[in-house]
């Protein structure tokens, strides 16, 4: 906890010191005390700033990248959506140059990646990374770069996919913290959690069963804090390889997918559609955030979350606490309205 004195306290201290040493008090005393107090306050503030940068859990984003570089943890960048589009209403076949720009009605722009005849599927790539570049088949696009012989309003997408967002900064911070803490990892259950989270950007949590299924074994269940917490086999395999590279000798580690236990909620006395949607979103977020915890979800906790949206409701079910097994997480099974 910071022990930095307030600015006024430092000014008062400076003023008292000046008066004590000079035996004088006049307008100049106040001005000098304010200058000294302000300068000292800045020094305290800078010390606080430096202290925050000493650990990846509290440092600023710029320093987080410095920590990441030292610990060899790179923030996963977004990828660019790719796919093809087709041109219709052609009277003649024309060549569509590479770097021709097209866009959606919402303004997302794509670039033709290779010169292609207009009667063929035309390969494109989104100009910006992220999921906004992913569009389904059948979406209308428009020419930005004029091409002679083409109707600028006759472009339709095939599936354009593969765009991913840059890794969330809070998730990146978690991985950097995990790498920082690895220096002290010796094979405790919490160390396996750290190794699992460090193994792949998609791993948000891990649950560890020590001495399972047999003595000398450790089973690590991994997942993500999403509506569907189950990761791909590729992520599971990457986690297995990474943990095997970190664990102590003589221990057999099994990395498995987390299982799910769906929790459905029944509510009454809420008729407004918007309020219902807000409640469903709040419960979804609350349960997702709890993924990886071993503690039960109680009816009282659900009431607290719902009460943040409205005070007028009745919780019909669940009526008892729901505790996840070591190999599972609780997922949101939706709301039944009465």
From TrEMBL:
Domain of life: Bacteria
Pfam families registered for this protein in UniProt: Baseplate_J (PF04865)
Domain Baseplate protein J-like barrel as annotated: residue spans: 84-163
Protein name: Baseplate protein J-like barrel domain-containing protein
Organism from which the protein derives: Hydrogenovibrio marinus
């Amino acid at each position: 906890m910071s022990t930095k004195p307030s600015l006024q306290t430092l000014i008062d201290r400076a003023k008292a010191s000046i008066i004590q040493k000079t035996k004088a008090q006049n307008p100049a005393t106040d001005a000098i005390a304010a200058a000294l107090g302000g300068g000292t306050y800045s020094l305290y503030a800078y010390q606080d700033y430096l202290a925050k940068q000493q650990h990846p859990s509290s440092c600023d984003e710029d320093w987080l990248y410095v920590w990441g570089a030292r610990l060899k943890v790179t923030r996963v960048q977004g990828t660019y959506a790719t796919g093809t589009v087709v041109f219709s209403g052609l009277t003649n076949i024309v060549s569509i140059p590479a770097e021709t720009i097209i866009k959606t009605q919402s303004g997302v722009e794509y670039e033709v990646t290779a010169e292609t005849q207009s009667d063929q599927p035309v390969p494109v790539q989104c100009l910006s990374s992220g999921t906004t570049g992913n569009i389904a088949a059948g979406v209308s696009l428009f020419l930005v770069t004029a091409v002679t012989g083409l109707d600028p309003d006759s472009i339709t997408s095939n599936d354009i996919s593969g765009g991913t967002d840059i890794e969330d900064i809070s998730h990146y911070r978690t991985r950097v913290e995990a790498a920082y803490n690895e220096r002290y990892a010796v094979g405790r259950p919490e160390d396996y959690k750290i190794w699992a989270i460090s193994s792949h950007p998609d791993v948000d949590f891990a649950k560890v069963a020590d001495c399972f299924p047999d003595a000398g074994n450790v089973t690590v269940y991994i997942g993500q804090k999403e509506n569907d917490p189950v990761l791909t086999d590729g992520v599971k395999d990457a986690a297995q390889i990474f943990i095997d590279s970190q664990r102590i000798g003589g221990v057999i580690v099994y990395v498995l997918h987390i299982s799910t236990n769906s929790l459905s909620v029944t509510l009454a006395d809420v008729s407004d559609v918007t309020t219902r949607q807000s409640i469903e979103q709040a419960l979804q977020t609350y349960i997702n955030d709890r993924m990886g915890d071993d503690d039960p979800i109680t009816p009282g906790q659900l009431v607290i979350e719902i009460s943040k949206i409205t005070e007028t409701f009745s919780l019909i079910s669940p009526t008892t606490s729901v505790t996840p097994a070591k190999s599972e997480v609780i997922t949101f099974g939706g709301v039944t309205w009465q």
